[in-house]
Amino acid sequence: MGTTITLTASDGHTLSAYMAGAPDAPRALVVVQEIFGVNHHIRAVCDEFAADGYRVVAPALFDRAERDVELAYDAQGVQTGLRLRAAIPPDRTLLDVMAAANALNDGKVGIIGYCWGGTVAWMAAARTRAFAAAVGWYGGGIAAQNDLVPHCPVQLHFGETDGSIPLSDVAAIRAAHPDVEILTYPHAGHGFGCSERDSFNAAATQLARTRSLAFLARHL
Predict the structure, then answer these.
(1) CATH number of the structural domain 3-219
(2) How many CB atoms are closer than 10 A to CB 217?
(3) pTM of the model
(4) Where in the chain are the domains?
């Protein structure tokens, strides 16, 4: 089990974050939330990475718009999450992600994000130099930022039946970035990695997680 800490971004904004893992863990990782906040699921993801030997921080990115946000996986949660995300400029989100990386105080830090967090991980890889490796799971905004060039190795995961990320978007990302490892999963929809969502796909989640851990281990 982890603990809640307070981070300070470079512009002076303070935000909460969930930290898990031993202080002397051999690897460091920032976990970036979905549009549902640093909720039960994201904390569980952090705990799992901590059990795998990571020191993990998940910054509460919604704190710039509203604090203590934990949303349910339903229509109202989606609406609220989209509203909060739209209220926060991407540049400010990156400041909060970098504050999380700084809190890990490690020579090499990785980043992994889910849903909105997958897109944030992509932006962080290209618009900062804070990370040695980046992993994105079903980041819906990546194709719209296809012109970004990552400064570190990147691995991306997409479900082949994702109603919000067509395979044509995945193909466009692959064509623009042949050096990025892009993996797809049959019969997997958006959010396939979250056991609290109807779209959960246990087999795809296990395979994607195994691949993510192997990728991070190679680069951190």
Answers:
(1) 3.40.50.1820
(2) 14
(3) 0.96
(4) 3-219
